[in-house]
Automatic annotation (TrEMBL):
<dbReference type="Pfam" id="PF00059">
    <property type="entry name" value="Lectin_C"/>
</dbReference>
<dbReference type="GO" id="GO:0048471">
    <property type="term" value="C:perinuclear region of cytoplasm"/>
</dbReference>
<dbReference type="GO" id="GO:0016020">
    <property type="term" value="C:membrane"/>
</dbReference>
<dbReference type="GO" id="GO:0030246">
    <property type="term" value="F:carbohydrate binding"/>
</dbReference>
<dbReference type="GO" id="GO:0005829">
    <property type="term" value="C:cytosol"/>
</dbReference>
<dbReference type="InterPro" id="IPR016186">
    <property type="entry name" value="C-type_lectin-like/link_sf"/>
</dbReference>
<dbReference type="InterPro" id="IPR016187">
    <property type="entry name" value="CTDL_fold"/>
</dbReference>
<feature type="domain" description="C-type lectin">
    <location>
        <begin position="35"/>
        <end position="179"/>
    </location>
</feature>
<keyword id="KW-0472">Membrane</keyword>
<dbReference type="GO" id="GO:0010975">
    <property type="term" value="P:regulation of neuron projection development"/>
</dbReference>
<keyword id="KW-0732">Signal</keyword>
<feature type="region of interest" description="Disordered">
    <location>
        <begin position="248"/>
        <end position="273"/>
    </location>
</feature>
<feature type="compositionally biased region" description="Polar residues">
    <location>
        <begin position="253"/>
        <end position="263"/>
    </location>
</feature>
<keyword id="KW-0430">Lectin</keyword>
<feature type="signal peptide">
    <location>
        <begin position="1"/>
        <end position="21"/>
    </location>
</feature>
<keyword id="KW-0812">Transmembrane</keyword>
<dbReference type="InterPro" id="IPR001304">
    <property type="entry name" value="C-type_lectin-like"/>
</dbReference>
Amino acid sequence: MSRVVSLLLGAALLCGHGAFCRRVVSGQKVCFADFKHPCYKMAYFHELSSRVSFQEARLACESEGGVLLSLENEAEQKLIESMLQNLTKPGTGISDGDFWIGLWRNGEGQTSGACPDLYQWSDGSSSQYRNWYTDEPSCGSEKCVVMYHQPTANPGLGGPYLYQWNDDRCNMKHNYICKYEPEINPTAPVEKTYFTNQPGDTHENVVVTEAGLIPNLIYVVIPTIPLLLLILVAFGTCCFQMLHKSKGRTKTSPHQSTLWISKSTRKESGMEV
């Protein structure tokens, strides 16, 4: 119960009535100064080509010491919803784009009624909390789960496509959410502590730790490597051809005659009359 209260307090802390509303920024790790509940990171990519598959998202989180998001209860779901609302509020330029969470199924195309029971958390969590959209999961070849985030889409049978879950093919490209253990002693050089000491605000602090910039850049740089190699090879070939031509070319001095004159005198034979 205390954990649920703590998470609800965190949701109110992000942007509650009369509370200090701190912007959640993509690629930053968001922690809470009570050091009791986890830290999170929202990885949102404007460019569709920069979004990642389920496995890539999972590896990106693990490379920073975290895991792909698992959700323990409705309170934690509401906390994540608050963070996403804060991340995508008007004026940020962030719009549609679902987020991978750590729920997946290791089955081969089950379509029976038992399929929903086959989903498990990639971090080993035993949580049975689920927040499926209407008629989901559809199973079949869709084995990995996203949290809907399509604010501009027309509502479906289950309402807006916001924050409820949908199973998707694991190779599809989406944003993702990482989850980390509480930061007991955040590293001083990379942290920014924001105090919620505005008038009338009695909540605790929020610690936003800047993290994840380099791993995010990796997904931008890696796709350009083949193009860079192609440019390098073309440049090297061009230089080689120019060097080869310059060696094969001979130059003649304008002051140098091309005629050969013999130094020996030639005797003229006399003519008899």
